[in-house]
Amino acid sequence: MANKVADSISREEFFYGHKACAGCGGSLAVRAALKVLGQNAVSVLPAGCMSAVGFNFPQLCFSNNSIISTFAGTASMLTGVEAGLRARGYKDFTAVGFAGDGGTADIGIQALSGAIDRNDNIIYICYDNEAYMNTGIQKSGLTPFGARTTTTPAGANIHGNIRPKKNMFEIAAAHDIPYAATASVGYIADFIAKVQKAAQIKGTKYIHVIAPCPTGWGVAPDETVDIAREVVDCGLWYLAEYENGGFTLDHKPKEFTDVAAYLKKQGRFRHLSDEDIQVIIESRDRKWEHINKTFSYKNSL
Amino acid sequence: MRPYLREKKDFSFAEVPENTSFEAGYLVSANSGWRSVRPVIDSGKCVGCEQCYLYCPDGVISIKDGKAVIDYDFCKGCGICAKICKPGAIGMEAERK
Amino acid sequence: MKKFLSGNEAFAEGIRLARPQVISAYPITPQTIVVERLSEMVEDGSLTAEYVHVESEHSALSCAIGASAAGARAFTATSSQGLLYMAECLYYAAGGRFPIVMMNADRSTALPWNIYGDQRDSLSQLDSGWIQAYAENAQEALDLALMSYRIAEDKRVSTPYMANLDGFVLTHTYETVDIPDRSQADSFLPPYETDNRIDFDNPRNMAFSAGPDTNYIFKYKEHEGVLAAREVIGETEAAFAEIFGRRYTGLTENYRTDDAEYVIVTLGSIAGLCRETADKLREKGVRAGVVRIRYMRPFPNEEIADVLRNAKAYAVLEKDISFGNEGTVFTNVNSALKKAGVDVKGSNYIGGLGGRNISAADIEKIYTDIANGADGVRFIGIGGEDNGK
């Protein structure tokens, strides 16, 4: 039984033997992307989960050329790697960055913005697990409204994080980047297709992939893929692309699944009141109103 | 091809590199000890659809002769494969310690 | 070829001759001229390099590290707040043994804001693992730029190199400078070769973590690399003299120290005025001498102990203060003497902070003070009751 998606990527494993938690969504994103980009990918990973679990000398888990950057320096090191290899005459390689939500939307956003501004020929993949997981689940700029983290405790006075997620996809797009996309590890074929597409485009490419962290989200390790699908199905995340100045929605759920069910499955949201959930639903609906008005639609799933 | 397990050893002063650069994909410790449950493939039910291969965060599943095969040295027993398997060919069994 | 150039421009000429493949820089006064000139050289084709307009100093050095990891020769330049902003990357470049060269225009650090020269920026980074050189004039600046890569890239060293030029006093002051011939420069400095790089035939994992058992060994080897620069600087300067005819004197430069009783130890562009003052005092019968520290890392422990062994007293004159203690150069010099068992009375003169002028009279007074038994830490001309003592 042939699987077209599996046949379209390398059979080799480039991220192997790592010490990520069982069921880690981030490691799935990195693994899948490298199987698209192959042996000549040069990966840059900042201090964070994937570098912490993959680069402990002498246990070195990337079989392609890979390097850790400073926390803030994913994009700037990618720029340097790409420029350095090009200056030395190499043409057949892909400089790809894998940074988490904190490394992308908080401490690394300046360098990322600079790289997009220069239109450096790199792929930047943000694996978004919605908090600083490596340091023990602290709030980041991509932690969603209501989530309990170790720095946004849920108590009688404050119900977890009081701010919504930044929209990094649209921030990247606002630079008029050649290609930006959102994805979820729950829809791996869609993510793989987007990495394949990015690899064919010259200039800066940004892919934002939701990558659940069972440890931080409070779900069982075998729930990672299901919860990564459900966040799309209930409309709290969306699969889209930005290209040639326009946004395209790649998938429109016929009917959203139950937001409360999605939230209550996860330890980080279990404290939410009905009012809190109502706030989340309203914010989702406003977002979709905007998407339906301004994005074109082409079902790619 | 995947990185393979090397012999574990202590690095002497002379063997420690002069800089922070070393052979890519150099593994000295397995992850098998992490498991409390292990996935077991019923090859009679496995249709070789490769969904488990695509979704495994650790990349430990490969397809041999049309059937899924697991590298137990590096499988952590997360159970994603068992959940994703439509034909129900993967069961999770308690790890005997 | 002789040209009338500022320190920044001379340094840029030296970098052109060194053929960096990637230049990443962010502007900051008084470093700007060096990167402006380099961008012009890239534009007019006299330098083939990728010029990357980064959005911060942190990114400037992070980009240079990436380029160096790709096996390319990389250059950046900064000053003051910029050096402090990129501080994390300084340690990173050194720990990874990436032989990047950076020019730093020595400038005061805020607060209060001030754009003029002192050396508190670079001296605060002595522990970052970089080789640190301090130029006195534009010619030396150019020559350091060319020599820096040969020293940094030597396999025994593999350490990044920071060349410091006093802000404005050196970066913006014009002198006649001899620019080496391009083909001679090429024969002096071969292209960069390293195995500390991305390699598609033999893939590498780089800039990794190392636990307590090996981390310690990596750090020891990093230390050895900086120490190895002692010898390599000597060899490089000998080769440089052979080709270009200009001779440098290693980690220190001594002036009239053979029979000197009173010696000022200093660094950077103020050394010239110290030498003139020593000459003047010699005419009056004072046996004055000057030691100019050219390299703060590796530190010239033996050289300083040897030259001060027979002095009656010395003063360290520096544009720096480690608040709550003394000038950092003084601390280093004292340690050198203590280790060598040299017991000479020393004192520390802090001056030039925020670009404040140090006059010939100030320097003459230092010699007079130490001849009269001065000790401790003094702030030149500070005012107030106690002259900073």
The total beta strand count of chain B reads 5
H/E element string of chain C? EHEHEHEHHEHEHEEHEEHEEHEEHEHEHE
Helix percentage of chain C: 40-55%
Helix amount of chain B: 10-25%
Instruction: Provide mean pLDDT of chain C, rounded.
Output: 97
Instruction: Please tell me the CATH architecture of one domain in chain B by its name.
Output: 2-Layer Sandwich
Instruction: Note the overall shape of chain B.
Output: elongated
Flag low-confidence runs of chain C.
Answer: none
Quick one: how many beta strands of chain C? 17
pLDDT < 50 runs, ≥5 residues of chain B: none
Largest sheet of chain C: 7 strands, mixed
Main β-sheet of chain B, in a few words?
2 strands, antiparallel
Kindly identify the CATH topology of one domain in chain B.
Answer: Alpha-Beta Plaits
**Hey, which two chains have the biggest interface?**
A-C, 44 and 41 residues
Number of helices of chain C: 13
Structural class, from secondary structure content of chain B?
alpha+beta
* Overall body shape of chain C: globular
Cα separation of the termini of chain B:
30 Å
The ordered string of helix (H) and strand (E) elements of chain B is EEHEEHE
Summarize this entry quickly.
The complex is a heterotrimer of chains A (301), B (97) and C (389). Chain B is an alpha+beta fold.
Describe the structure.
The complex is a heterotrimer of chains A (301), B (97) and C (389). Chain A contains twelve helices and eleven strands. Chain A has 301 residues and is of the alpha/beta class. Chain A has a single domain, classed as Rossmann fold (3-Layer(aba) Sandwich). In chain A, the strands form two sheets. Chain A has a nine-stranded mixed β-sheet, sandwiched between helices. A two-stranded antiparallel sheet of chain A has the order 2-3. Chain A is globular. The mean pLDDT of chain A is 97. Chain B is α+β, with helices and mostly antiparallel strands and 97 residues long. Helix content of chain B is 10%, strand content 22%. The mean pLDDT of chain B is 95. Chain C is an alpha/beta fold and 389 residues long. Helix content of chain C is 41%, strand content 20%. Chain C contains 13 helices and 17 strands. In chain C, helix 12 links the parallel strand 15 and strand 16. In chain C, helix 1 packs parallel to helix 7 and helix 10 packs across helix 13. Chain C is globular. Chains A and C meet through strand 2, strand 4, helix 4 and helix 6 of A and strand 3, helix 3, helix 5, strand 9 and strand 10 of C. Strand 4 of chain A pairs parallel with strand 9 of chain C, so a sheet runs across the interface.
